[in-house]
Amino acid sequence: MALVRLQTEHFRNLAPDPVSFSPSFNLLYGANGSGKTSVLEAIGYLGLGRSFRVSRHQAVVSHGQSRFTVFGGLDQGADESVSGDEGGLAHRLGIARDVSAKETSLRVDGENVRSLSSMAKHLPVSVIDPGVFDIVAGGPGKRRQFLDWLVFHVEPSFASVWQQCQRVTSQRNQTLRNGRIDESLLRVWDSQYAGLSERLSDSRQATFDRFKEAFELLVKQVDVPWTQGLTMEFFPGWDRAHELTEILRNHREQELKMGHTLYGPNRADIRLKFQGRPVAETFSRGQQKTLVILMKIAQGMVLSDMGRQVTFLLDDINAELDVGHRAMLAQKLRALGSQVFITSIEHPDPESLWGAGDTPDYRMFHVEHGKLTEE
Ligand SMILES: Nc1ncnc2c1ncn2[C@@H]1O[C@H](COP(=O)(O)OP(=O)(O)OP(=O)(O)O)[C@@H](O)[C@H]1O
């Protein structure tokens, strides 16, 4: 499915007019500050429930307003089991946030829904912006987020196990911080925590295996010699050859001293190594960027194999990737049948991405003062 209709109200500087997009490529260009990233950010809200660039909803509400709304219409795509409504839309998604009342309302097909996952599962949104390179260069948290996004779209029930595990972890942390050792209470938390951790890690491992397979297939297709010698491995956050409850008991003193949980899914990582050393230490910035792009494409391949279409949001990639890498990305995303939004400051040249006479279906928009005009 692809996002073919978007309408926002009081969202940054965006005009409230509805816009229709291509289920294939959408090229958005405009001057600095015209609103290009805001369009991607609004789309991101429907698939992620939050902004991909700021942590507070407050920042995106238009100045002087207290509530914003984003509405999106999804087409049926290749999924013939889904029938469209009279407007040809397979799903209608809506998110509104009142920042004064601190209330979020979510709607799917005209019904209020409570959980974000009920909305987000319809629109797998993958962002490639200058911040994405932290997946390789940054800490394990970024890589967990990267993996969990895919696990959720492969297996939507993962969201509720993840939330339960977060809740139990924070309760367990509170007990650890209490100072007074209440061994019987800790054992209760240990066993609940270990059960949820096993379930979470099984899901992560299974999805990681699919991801790795897709990644290995991809590197065989692209001409990137340094991918030989690259290894990736999922680390669940503890040594699964041992029971987690046993590890927790054996490290009780250490955890009490630190005041939080040191073993389990919150320590999980995707370990990326080149000739045995972490890629963050050995790869050049350019190699790290290419690796992230390949990893993002591999995620798209996993979902594409399941008949799902990812909506890629490519923000300001001209500043980060050279022509060759941009073209590789554009070709692969085309082959996947993904929906893609690409922003740029200059008027885009589709032929530089796909070659003369071989451009896919695309729509081009000029963005000015928050308003999109199709060309
Ligand atoms: N809450 C808000 N209310 C109203 N306008 C806002 C709000 N937040 C940001 N803006 C303005 O909205 C505009 C859109 O910014 P955006 O980052 O989307 O532009 P852009 O086209 O991606 O620019 P660049 O090419 O510089 O990255 C900016 O001019 C900004 O000042």
UniProtKB/TrEMBL annotation:
Q: What is the lineage of its organism?
A: Bacteria, Pseudomonadati, Pseudomonadota, Gammaproteobacteria, Pseudomonadales
Which residues hold ATP? G30, A31, N32, G33, S34, G35, K36, T37
What Gene Ontology terms describe what this protein does at the molecular function level?
Answer: ATP binding; single-stranded DNA binding
> What's the chief localization of this chain?
cytoplasm
A single BP term in Gene Ontology:
double-strand break repair
Start and end residues of each RecF/RecN/SMC N-terminal domain: 3-347
Domain of life, source organism: Bacteria
Q: NCBIfam families of this UniProt entry? A: recf
What's this protein's name?
Answer: DNA replication and repair protein RecF
One term under GO cellular component = cytoplasm
Supply the alphabetized keyword list.
ATP-binding, Cytoplasm, DNA damage, DNA repair, DNA replication, DNA-binding, Nucleotide-binding, SOS response
Entry's InterPro entries? DNA-binding_RecF, DNA-binding_RecF_CS, P-loop_NTPase, RecF/RecN/SMC_N, RecF_2
Q: Which family does it belong to?
A: Belongs to the RecF family.
A Pfam match is: SMC_N
